[in-house]
Amino acid sequence: MISKLLIANRGEIACRIIRTARAMGIATVAVYSDADAKALHVRTADEAVQIGPSPAAESYLVGEKIIAAAKQTGADAIHPGYGFLSENADFAQAVMDAGLIWVGAPPSSIRAMGLKDAAKKLMREAGVPVTPGYDGDDQSAERLQQEADAIGYPVLIKAVAGGGGKGMRKVDAAGDFLSSLESCRREAKASFGNDDVILEKWITSPRHIEVQVFGDSHGNVVHLFERDCSLQRRHQKVIEEAPAPGMDEATREDICAAAVRAAKAVDYEGAGTIEFIADASEGLRADRIFFMEMNTRLQVEHPVTEEITGVDLVEWQLRVANGEAIPLKQEELGINGWAMEARLYAEDPTSGFLPSIGRLERLDLMDHSGRSDTGVVQGSEVTPFYDPMIAKMIVHEPNRSDAIAGLIDKLETAVVWPVKTNKGFLVRLLNDKDVQDADLDTGLIARKFDQLTKRPVPSDRVLSDAAAWLLRESSDFDSVVTGIGAFRLNAAPPKSMRLTVDGEEREFEFSPTPEGQYFEHGFAPIEQPAHQFVQIEGDVIAISLPRNDAGGAASAADGAILAPMPGKVIAVDVAEGDAVTAGQRLMVLEAMKMEHALTAPFDGTVTELNSSEGGQVQVEAVLCVVEPVEEG
Fold first, then answer.
1. Range 133-145 average pLDDT
2. Which pairs count as long-range contacts for 422-425, CB under 8 Å and 24+ apart, including other chains?
3. Of the listed 10, 227, 297, 428, which one is catalytic?
């Protein structure tokens, strides 16, 4: 058995692997960048080695440093987790060439499935149904345009080396194809070093169904049933569940058998996932489910499979890497109950899901309810260098409705402050009627974006309670409230008060209790000096007394376009003096491994431009200024 394991990753997946390794009696080694010197995975492992500066390209993506750390500490195996180098065949081979055990798929399998065009051809030969499209060698823009026109719109552009929703663009009309192709290729080149693409027909009512497979060095391959990952935004999974709702036994048998054929076609070993796209316009049917790609690694959403099967997939990985056979036969595996997972991120849904960085002053995930896989604790920093996931919130219940209710409760009771999160968005999504009725497809979030990202408005009762807490810190009750309404004999009059709610002033009215008290207590906000933070439907709402000074942040109406976070300007579409219209793209900022388009807030003229392509910018830097068109 492996005696010492180095985890070539960070965050929650590193902590997850350490947990299983420790239970198996395996010593662990963490690696870390400068930004992660105090991270939870570093503190949890038996040993830790610093491997470079904060950017992943100088630390977690440098295979030579990771192998050197393994040699330095006497580790005999390396587990790559997911992301970073987990699907890098050259790194896998280098680990093996160094005499170490690679806890992952064979390099040959990674290469076979690593490029989407080659993988689709291989799957056709193995009898696995694939999505109609183009995966030819001619990558000229002219040929790709012709093929897209022939396929018919909408069409999906996908980077051959892509993953995680990056390097993908849906194109609705022929006139938009070339600009979408350019953007897709630019993102693919930056993320994967390869800007080749394939084209696929956009599926009507698409559902994302994937099958967990597992192989060993003895020729055995099993499946651990399917997951539904249809709830996505910008092709990134948000909520996952297992099994897939609406999946009958005959269809399950067909799709899982196809997944096993796919794995056997590449002599697969270890944990892997076969991803399918289903045309669910008439429900889930085997003849309308097509192969998309194979992920030759452990998936982020693997916990839902673990919950319904009772299997520890990381333990299986370690045993198979050590030369053992898969612990269970196919007939010994079954589905028990229903599991759901929500990805809790430090991001702001009201600002296009821009990451929210900073210190986690308050963090309570209520681990007594269900399972929370996390790589942070209270006091940890969310930095701009890596994926801003706080935790994976997981529940396992007897049926789907109980799983939804349990996940809502788990999210609503979790406390995260002051960084913004997608918690309220997740709660509204789970409460959505179509989600509850399992009327799912990958476009659901986009269609309902406005209602899902709209923050709730606190009621007068909530404001009254918050005001009571705030006024305890205020010197004079009468200075911040005013009487209103008509005189009432032997009764205290109603009162009016102004509060700043989520940055905007709001006036509300409140009446006294029969005992003459103006405020009722009975809720527990997140207390901080001069502010109250109350949770409504999962969202944290900031409430404070109005400022008496004239200071404060400038209004968005001034036309200053600020950098929402530190990043790199990768495209500038305007010049000083240009006339622009509301919503027009001004520039593109690359930050947190994603592209963010910055647009004009109104019709006007660019009067100041302080950024250029390739420039690095800091948060809230003024990138340009748009002056509105004068009326009249």
1. 94
2. 422/238, 422/343, 422/344, 422/345, 422/347, 422/349, 422/353, 423/344, 423/538, 423/539, 423/540, 424/349, 424/455, 424/456, 424/536, 424/537, 424/538, 424/539, 424/540, 425/349, 425/452, 425/453, 425/538
3. 297
